[in-house]
Amino acid sequence: MIRLGVVGATGAVGKELFDILEKRDFPIGELRLFGSPRSLGKKLTLRGKTESVRILEPGCFDGLDLIFFDASDAISKEWVKPALESGAIIIDNSAVYRLDPAVPLVVPEVNLQAMKDSLKKGNRLFAGPNCTTVPLAVVIDTLRQVAPVSRVIVSTYQSVSGAGTEAVAELRAQSVDILSGKPAQPKALAHPIAFNLIPQIGGFLEDGSTSEELKVRDETRKILDLPNLPVTCTAVRVPTVKGHGESVLIEFSEAFDLEKMKAALRSRTGITVLDDPKNRVYPMNETYGVSPALTVSGMDDVAVGRVRRDTSSDRGLQLWIVSDNLRKGAALNAIQMAEGILPELLARHSS
Ligand SMILES: NC(=O)c1ccc[n+]([C@@H]2O[C@H](COP(=O)([O-])OP(=O)(O)OC[C@H]3O[C@@H](n4cnc5c(N)ncnc54)[C@H](OP(=O)(O)O)[C@@H]3O)[C@@H](O)[C@H]2O)c1
Residue 264: what pLDDT? Predict the structure, then answer.
Protein backbone atom coordinates (compact mmCIF):
# COMPACT_ATOMS: atom_id res chain seq x y z
CA MET A 1 0.00 0.00 0.00
CA ILE A 2 1.24 3.47 -0.91
CA ARG A 3 1.70 6.17 1.73
CA LEU A 4 0.28 9.11 -0.22
CA GLY A 5 0.50 12.87 0.31
CA VAL A 6 -1.64 15.43 -1.55
CA VAL A 7 -0.61 19.08 -1.47
CA GLY A 8 -3.57 21.23 -2.56
CA ALA A 9 -6.14 18.61 -1.55
CA THR A 10 -8.87 21.25 -1.14
CA GLY A 11 -8.42 22.90 -4.56
CA ALA A 12 -10.15 22.29 -7.88
CA VAL A 13 -7.61 19.65 -9.01
CA GLY A 14 -7.37 18.16 -5.50
CA LYS A 15 -11.13 17.60 -5.35
CA GLU A 16 -11.07 15.86 -8.73
CA LEU A 17 -8.16 13.72 -7.58
CA PHE A 18 -10.29 12.51 -4.68
CA ASP A 19 -13.23 11.78 -6.96
CA ILE A 20 -11.02 9.70 -9.27
CA LEU A 21 -9.20 7.85 -6.46
CA GLU A 22 -12.57 6.99 -4.92
CA LYS A 23 -13.43 4.91 -7.98
CA ARG A 24 -10.00 3.62 -8.94
CA ASP A 25 -8.12 0.65 -7.65
CA PHE A 26 -5.03 2.60 -6.54
CA PRO A 27 -3.58 1.04 -3.36
CA ILE A 28 -3.54 3.74 -0.67
CA GLY A 29 -2.33 3.05 2.84
CA GLU A 30 -1.68 6.24 4.78
CA LEU A 31 -3.17 9.44 3.30
CA ARG A 32 -1.79 12.85 4.31
CA LEU A 33 -3.59 15.96 3.04
CA PHE A 34 -2.21 19.47 2.87
CA GLY A 35 -3.86 22.84 2.29
CA SER A 36 -3.33 26.46 3.23
CA PRO A 37 -3.79 27.60 6.85
CA ARG A 38 -7.37 28.51 5.82
CA SER A 39 -8.15 24.79 5.48
CA LEU A 40 -6.32 23.57 8.58
CA GLY A 41 -8.43 20.87 10.25
CA LYS A 42 -10.97 20.66 7.42
CA LYS A 43 -12.14 17.05 7.03
CA LEU A 44 -12.05 15.19 3.71
CA THR A 45 -13.24 11.62 3.21
CA LEU A 46 -11.79 9.05 0.82
CA ARG A 47 -13.05 5.46 0.60
CA GLY A 48 -14.91 5.89 3.89
CA LYS A 49 -11.85 7.16 5.80
CA THR A 50 -11.85 10.76 7.01
CA GLU A 51 -8.61 12.74 7.21
CA SER A 52 -7.96 16.28 8.48
CA VAL A 53 -6.16 18.78 6.28
CA ARG A 54 -2.72 19.75 7.60
CA ILE A 55 -0.46 22.68 6.81
CA LEU A 56 2.97 22.45 5.24
CA GLU A 57 5.75 22.49 7.83
CA PRO A 58 9.26 21.02 8.19
CA GLY A 59 9.16 17.22 8.36
CA CYS A 60 5.55 17.04 7.14
CA PHE A 61 6.45 14.68 4.27
CA ASP A 62 8.51 12.19 6.32
CA GLY A 63 7.63 8.56 5.57
CA LEU A 64 5.52 9.23 2.45
CA ASP A 65 6.11 7.18 -0.73
CA LEU A 66 4.35 9.45 -3.23
CA ILE A 67 3.27 13.11 -3.13
CA PHE A 68 0.99 14.85 -5.61
CA PHE A 69 1.58 18.61 -5.78
CA ASP A 70 -1.64 20.35 -6.88
CA ALA A 71 -1.31 23.76 -5.23
CA SER A 72 0.47 26.54 -7.15
CA ASP A 73 3.81 27.47 -8.69
CA ALA A 74 4.79 29.32 -5.49
CA ILE A 75 4.06 26.30 -3.27
CA SER A 76 5.91 23.90 -5.60
CA LYS A 77 8.91 26.26 -5.73
CA GLU A 78 9.12 26.25 -1.94
CA TRP A 79 8.06 22.69 -1.02
CA VAL A 80 9.06 20.26 -3.80
CA LYS A 81 12.71 20.29 -2.67
CA PRO A 82 11.94 19.37 0.98
CA ALA A 83 9.53 16.75 -0.35
CA LEU A 84 12.30 15.23 -2.48
CA GLU A 85 14.66 15.31 0.50
CA SER A 86 12.11 13.25 2.45
CA GLY A 87 12.71 10.44 -0.07
CA ALA A 88 9.29 10.44 -1.75
CA ILE A 89 8.45 10.32 -5.45
CA ILE A 90 6.86 13.63 -6.53
CA ILE A 91 4.30 14.22 -9.27
CA ASP A 92 4.05 18.00 -9.64
CA ASN A 93 1.19 19.59 -11.59
CA SER A 94 2.57 23.13 -11.36
CA ALA A 95 4.50 24.77 -14.20
CA VAL A 96 7.74 25.10 -12.22
CA TYR A 97 9.64 22.00 -13.39
CA ARG A 98 7.86 21.17 -16.66
CA LEU A 99 10.62 22.43 -18.93
CA ASP A 100 13.53 21.37 -16.70
CA PRO A 101 15.57 18.96 -18.88
CA ALA A 102 16.17 16.73 -15.83
CA VAL A 103 12.43 16.33 -15.15
CA PRO A 104 10.28 14.17 -17.45
CA LEU A 105 7.05 15.90 -18.51
CA VAL A 106 4.62 13.05 -18.81
CA VAL A 107 1.43 12.08 -20.62
CA PRO A 108 1.44 8.34 -19.92
CA GLU A 109 -0.14 7.32 -23.25
CA VAL A 110 2.67 9.14 -25.04
CA ASN A 111 5.89 8.99 -23.03
CA LEU A 112 5.55 6.85 -19.90
CA GLN A 113 8.84 5.22 -20.85
CA ALA A 114 10.68 8.52 -20.25
CA MET A 115 9.34 8.48 -16.69
CA LYS A 116 10.34 4.85 -16.13
CA ASP A 117 13.84 5.38 -17.56
CA SER A 118 14.34 8.46 -15.41
CA LEU A 119 13.14 6.64 -12.29
CA LYS A 120 15.62 3.84 -12.98
CA LYS A 121 18.40 6.47 -13.01
CA GLY A 122 17.32 7.60 -9.53
CA ASN A 123 15.22 10.67 -10.41
CA ARG A 124 12.11 11.06 -8.28
CA LEU A 125 10.56 14.30 -9.61
CA PHE A 126 8.07 14.16 -12.49
CA ALA A 127 5.91 16.91 -13.96
CA GLY A 128 2.35 16.86 -15.27
CA PRO A 129 1.72 19.17 -18.25
CA ASN A 130 -0.59 22.14 -18.72
CA CYS A 131 -4.25 21.15 -19.05
CA THR A 132 -4.41 22.26 -22.69
CA THR A 133 -1.21 20.50 -23.66
CA VAL A 134 -2.25 17.05 -22.41
CA PRO A 135 -5.11 16.42 -24.88
CA LEU A 136 -3.23 18.06 -27.72
CA ALA A 137 -0.21 15.79 -27.16
CA VAL A 138 -2.42 12.68 -27.10
CA VAL A 139 -4.07 13.65 -30.41
CA ILE A 140 -0.86 14.67 -32.21
CA ASP A 141 0.89 11.51 -31.01
CA THR A 142 -1.97 9.46 -32.47
CA LEU A 143 -1.93 11.20 -35.84
CA ARG A 144 1.83 11.15 -36.25
CA GLN A 145 1.60 7.36 -36.43
CA VAL A 146 -0.16 7.93 -39.79
CA ALA A 147 1.95 10.77 -41.24
CA PRO A 148 4.77 13.03 -39.97
CA VAL A 149 3.47 16.25 -38.41
CA SER A 150 5.04 19.47 -39.73
CA ARG A 151 3.05 22.29 -38.06
CA VAL A 152 0.34 22.83 -35.44
CA ILE A 153 -1.98 25.85 -35.08
CA VAL A 154 -4.23 25.92 -32.01
CA SER A 155 -6.90 28.24 -30.62
CA THR A 156 -8.04 27.31 -27.13
CA TYR A 157 -11.36 27.86 -25.37
CA GLN A 158 -10.44 27.39 -21.72
CA SER A 159 -12.94 27.11 -18.85
CA VAL A 160 -12.61 29.13 -15.68
CA SER A 161 -11.77 26.07 -13.55
CA GLY A 162 -8.41 26.14 -15.35
CA ALA A 163 -7.72 29.19 -13.18
CA GLY A 164 -8.75 27.42 -9.95
CA THR A 165 -11.65 27.38 -7.50
CA GLU A 166 -11.82 31.17 -7.06
CA ALA A 167 -12.34 31.77 -10.78
CA VAL A 168 -15.26 29.30 -10.81
CA ALA A 169 -16.91 31.16 -7.94
CA GLU A 170 -16.28 34.42 -9.79
CA LEU A 171 -18.02 33.25 -12.98
CA ARG A 172 -21.05 32.07 -10.99
CA ALA A 173 -21.32 35.27 -8.90
CA GLN A 174 -20.77 37.54 -11.92
CA SER A 175 -23.40 35.75 -13.98
CA VAL A 176 -25.98 36.35 -11.24
CA ASP A 177 -24.84 39.96 -10.75
CA ILE A 178 -24.99 40.83 -14.44
CA LEU A 179 -28.40 39.21 -14.93
CA SER A 180 -29.61 41.18 -11.90
CA GLY A 181 -28.34 44.45 -13.37
CA LYS A 182 -25.48 44.78 -10.87
CA PRO A 183 -21.89 45.67 -11.88
CA ALA A 184 -19.44 42.80 -12.58
CA GLN A 185 -16.62 42.47 -10.07
CA PRO A 186 -13.48 40.80 -11.47
CA LYS A 187 -10.91 39.60 -8.92
CA ALA A 188 -9.42 36.20 -9.78
CA LEU A 189 -9.44 37.08 -13.51
CA ALA A 190 -8.30 40.36 -15.08
CA HIS A 191 -11.66 41.26 -16.64
CA PRO A 192 -15.30 40.23 -16.25
CA ILE A 193 -15.63 36.69 -17.59
CA ALA A 194 -19.41 36.20 -17.45
CA PHE A 195 -20.87 36.59 -20.98
CA ASN A 196 -17.37 37.55 -22.17
CA LEU A 197 -14.22 36.07 -23.77
CA ILE A 198 -10.77 37.07 -22.52
CA PRO A 199 -7.94 36.59 -25.04
CA GLN A 200 -5.30 36.46 -22.33
CA ILE A 201 -4.22 33.54 -20.13
CA GLY A 202 -1.01 34.23 -18.24
CA GLY A 203 1.24 37.25 -18.64
CA PHE A 204 2.30 38.84 -21.94
CA LEU A 205 5.81 38.27 -23.28
CA GLU A 206 8.00 40.49 -25.50
CA ASP A 207 6.72 38.94 -28.75
CA GLY A 208 3.04 39.49 -27.86
CA SER A 209 2.39 35.85 -26.87
CA THR A 210 1.16 34.92 -23.43
CA SER A 211 2.93 32.54 -21.07
CA GLU A 212 0.05 30.03 -21.51
CA GLU A 213 0.50 30.05 -25.30
CA LEU A 214 4.21 29.34 -24.98
CA LYS A 215 3.50 26.55 -22.48
CA VAL A 216 1.35 24.87 -25.13
CA ARG A 217 4.18 25.16 -27.67
CA ASP A 218 7.12 24.21 -25.46
CA GLU A 219 5.41 21.45 -23.49
CA THR A 220 3.99 19.84 -26.63
CA ARG A 221 7.46 19.78 -28.17
CA LYS A 222 8.98 18.24 -25.04
CA ILE A 223 6.36 15.50 -24.58
CA LEU A 224 6.46 14.48 -28.24
CA ASP A 225 10.25 14.78 -28.32
CA LEU A 226 9.95 17.04 -31.37
CA PRO A 227 12.02 20.04 -30.18
CA ASN A 228 11.64 22.01 -33.42
CA LEU A 229 7.97 21.33 -34.19
CA PRO A 230 6.36 24.63 -35.26
CA VAL A 231 3.44 25.19 -32.87
CA THR A 232 1.45 28.41 -32.50
CA CYS A 233 -1.38 29.04 -30.08
CA THR A 234 -3.96 31.65 -29.11
CA ALA A 235 -5.34 30.91 -25.63
CA VAL A 236 -8.73 32.32 -24.68
CA ARG A 237 -10.59 32.14 -21.35
CA VAL A 238 -14.29 31.45 -21.93
CA PRO A 239 -17.27 31.55 -19.55
CA THR A 240 -17.65 27.78 -19.10
CA VAL A 241 -16.96 25.98 -15.83
CA LYS A 242 -15.17 22.78 -16.82
CA GLY A 243 -13.57 21.42 -20.00
CA HIS A 244 -11.12 23.05 -22.37
CA GLY A 245 -11.95 23.23 -26.07
CA GLU A 246 -9.27 23.42 -28.75
CA SER A 247 -9.69 24.22 -32.42
CA VAL A 248 -6.67 22.58 -34.01
CA LEU A 249 -5.14 22.64 -37.48
CA ILE A 250 -2.42 20.03 -37.92
CA GLU A 251 -0.28 20.08 -41.04
CA PHE A 252 1.60 17.00 -42.21
CA SER A 253 4.75 16.81 -44.32
CA GLU A 254 3.06 14.46 -46.80
CA ALA A 255 -0.41 13.91 -48.24
CA PHE A 256 -2.59 11.68 -46.06
CA ASP A 257 -5.68 9.52 -46.18
CA LEU A 258 -8.43 11.17 -44.11
CA GLU A 259 -10.06 7.84 -43.28
CA LYS A 260 -6.75 6.51 -41.90
CA MET A 261 -6.50 9.57 -39.64
CA LYS A 262 -10.05 9.00 -38.38
CA ALA A 263 -9.37 5.30 -37.85
CA ALA A 264 -6.22 6.08 -35.86
CA LEU A 265 -8.18 8.41 -33.57
CA ARG A 266 -10.99 5.86 -33.12
CA SER A 267 -8.62 3.05 -32.20
CA ARG A 268 -6.51 5.00 -29.69
CA THR A 269 -7.08 4.18 -26.03
CA GLY A 270 -7.83 7.41 -24.18
CA ILE A 271 -9.57 9.10 -27.12
CA THR A 272 -13.33 9.10 -27.71
CA VAL A 273 -14.37 10.21 -31.19
CA LEU A 274 -17.75 11.99 -31.27
CA ASP A 275 -18.01 12.91 -34.90
CA ASP A 276 -21.28 12.69 -36.80
CA PRO A 277 -21.94 16.29 -37.86
CA LYS A 278 -25.13 15.48 -39.80
CA ASN A 279 -26.68 14.34 -36.53
CA ARG A 280 -25.11 17.22 -34.57
CA VAL A 281 -22.70 14.88 -32.84
CA TYR A 282 -19.51 16.57 -31.61
CA PRO A 283 -17.95 16.95 -28.15
CA MET A 284 -19.14 19.75 -25.87
CA ASN A 285 -18.20 20.89 -22.38
CA GLU A 286 -21.53 20.64 -20.61
CA THR A 287 -25.06 19.99 -21.85
CA TYR A 288 -26.88 20.02 -18.48
CA GLY A 289 -28.30 16.52 -18.89
CA VAL A 290 -29.65 17.20 -22.40
CA SER A 291 -26.96 15.33 -24.38
CA PRO A 292 -25.00 13.27 -21.84
CA ALA A 293 -23.24 11.23 -24.54
CA LEU A 294 -21.71 14.43 -25.95
CA THR A 295 -20.73 15.94 -22.60
CA VAL A 296 -17.02 15.93 -21.79
CA SER A 297 -17.15 17.41 -18.29
CA GLY A 298 -16.53 14.39 -16.03
CA MET A 299 -15.19 12.24 -18.92
CA ASP A 300 -11.77 10.62 -18.61
CA ASP A 301 -11.04 10.40 -22.33
CA VAL A 302 -9.96 13.21 -24.62
CA ALA A 303 -12.94 13.81 -26.94
CA VAL A 304 -12.43 14.62 -30.61
CA GLY A 305 -14.91 15.70 -33.29
CA ARG A 306 -15.31 17.81 -36.44
CA VAL A 307 -12.41 15.88 -38.03
CA ARG A 308 -12.03 17.16 -41.58
CA ARG A 309 -9.60 18.14 -44.25
CA ASP A 310 -8.31 21.71 -44.16
CA THR A 311 -10.14 23.52 -46.98
CA SER A 312 -7.01 25.58 -47.77
CA SER A 313 -4.46 22.74 -48.05
CA ASP A 314 -4.46 19.00 -48.76
CA ARG A 315 -1.79 18.49 -46.08
CA GLY A 316 -3.88 19.96 -43.28
CA LEU A 317 -6.34 18.32 -40.91
CA GLN A 318 -8.76 20.27 -38.74
CA LEU A 319 -10.42 19.00 -35.62
CA TRP A 320 -12.12 20.02 -32.41
CA ILE A 321 -10.88 18.67 -29.08
CA VAL A 322 -12.60 18.90 -25.70
CA SER A 323 -11.02 17.49 -22.58
CA ASP A 324 -11.91 17.77 -18.89
CA ASN A 325 -9.11 20.06 -17.73
CA LEU A 326 -9.37 18.93 -14.12
CA ARG A 327 -9.35 15.20 -15.00
CA LYS A 328 -7.18 14.26 -18.01
CA GLY A 329 -5.75 17.79 -17.95
CA ALA A 330 -4.49 17.40 -14.37
CA ALA A 331 -5.70 14.91 -11.72
CA LEU A 332 -6.32 11.84 -13.87
CA ASN A 333 -3.10 12.31 -15.80
CA ALA A 334 -1.18 12.47 -12.50
CA ILE A 335 -2.86 9.31 -11.21
CA GLN A 336 -2.13 7.51 -14.50
CA MET A 337 1.52 8.58 -14.11
CA ALA A 338 1.59 7.00 -10.65
CA GLU A 339 -0.17 3.87 -11.92
CA GLY A 340 2.44 3.62 -14.68
CA ILE A 341 5.17 3.21 -12.06
CA LEU A 342 3.08 1.29 -9.53
CA PRO A 343 5.39 -1.78 -9.34
CA GLU A 344 8.33 0.53 -8.61
CA LEU A 345 6.29 2.45 -6.00
CA LEU A 346 5.22 -0.74 -4.25
CA ALA A 347 8.77 -2.11 -4.36
CA ARG A 348 10.08 1.10 -2.73
CA HIS A 349 7.48 0.80 -0.03
CA SER A 350 8.40 -2.76 0.88
CA SER A 351 12.20 -2.20 0.72
N1 LIG B 1 -7.13 23.83 -12.78
C2 LIG B 1 -6.61 23.17 -13.80
O3 LIG B 1 -7.29 22.91 -14.80
C4 LIG B 1 -5.17 22.72 -13.76
C5 LIG B 1 -4.69 21.90 -14.79
C6 LIG B 1 -3.35 21.49 -14.77
C7 LIG B 1 -2.55 21.88 -13.74
N8 LIG B 1 -3.05 22.69 -12.76
C9 LIG B 1 -2.16 23.08 -11.67
O10 LIG B 1 -2.63 22.42 -10.48
C11 LIG B 1 -2.39 23.25 -9.35
C12 LIG B 1 -3.68 23.46 -8.59
O13 LIG B 1 -4.61 24.15 -9.39
P14 LIG B 1 -6.13 24.34 -8.94
O15 LIG B 1 -6.83 24.78 -10.15
O16 LIG B 1 -6.59 23.16 -8.20
O17 LIG B 1 -6.00 25.60 -7.93
P18 LIG B 1 -6.99 26.02 -6.74
O19 LIG B 1 -8.37 25.53 -6.96
O20 LIG B 1 -6.77 27.47 -6.56
O21 LIG B 1 -6.40 25.22 -5.47
C22 LIG B 1 -5.17 25.57 -4.90
C23 LIG B 1 -4.84 24.60 -3.79
O24 LIG B 1 -3.58 24.99 -3.22
C25 LIG B 1 -3.75 25.10 -1.81
N26 LIG B 1 -2.85 26.09 -1.20
C27 LIG B 1 -2.83 27.42 -1.38
N28 LIG B 1 -1.92 27.99 -0.56
C29 LIG B 1 -1.35 26.98 0.14
C30 LIG B 1 -0.37 26.92 1.15
N31 LIG B 1 0.23 28.03 1.62
N32 LIG B 1 -0.03 25.71 1.65
C33 LIG B 1 -0.63 24.56 1.21
N34 LIG B 1 -1.60 24.57 0.25
C35 LIG B 1 -1.95 25.76 -0.27
C36 LIG B 1 -5.18 25.54 -1.63
O37 LIG B 1 -5.60 25.31 -0.30
P38 LIG B 1 -6.83 26.14 0.33
O39 LIG B 1 -8.08 25.48 -0.20
O40 LIG B 1 -6.63 25.93 1.78
O41 LIG B 1 -6.69 27.54 -0.11
C42 LIG B 1 -5.86 24.61 -2.64
O43 LIG B 1 -5.98 23.31 -2.10
C44 LIG B 1 -1.74 24.53 -9.89
O45 LIG B 1 -0.33 24.39 -9.81
C46 LIG B 1 -2.18 24.56 -11.33
O47 LIG B 1 -1.28 25.26 -12.17
C48 LIG B 1 -4.33 23.10 -12.73
Answer: 98
Domains of the chain: 2-129+330-350 (3.40.50.720), 133-159+197-324 (3.30.360.10)
DSSP string, 237-283: E-S-SS-EEEEEEEEESS---HHHHHHHHHHSTTEEE--BGGGTB--
pTM of the prediction?
0.96
In this structure, the strands spanning 149-158 and 244-252 are: antiparallel
Q: Which of 6, 7, 13 has most ligand 1 atoms within 8 Å of CB, for mutation?
A: 13
Judge whether 16 and 45 are in contact, CB under 8 Å. Answer: no
**What are the tens digits of pLDDT across the range 80-138?**
999 999 999 999 999 999 999 999 999 999 999 999 999 999 999 999 999 999 999 99
Distance 8 CA to ligand 1 centre (A): 5
pLDDT, tens only, 122-153: 999 999 999 999 999 999 999 999 999 999 99
What spacing in Å lies between the alpha carbon of 145 and ligand 1's midpoint? 35
Q: Which atom of ligand 1 is nearest the CA belonging to 92?
A: 45
pLDDT tens digits along 319-332 = 999 999 999 999 99
Annotated active-site positions, please? Answer: 131, 244
Ligand 1 first shell, C-beta below 6 A = 7-14, 34-36, 38-39, 56, 70-72, 75, 93-94, 131, 161-162, 164-165, 325-326, 329-330
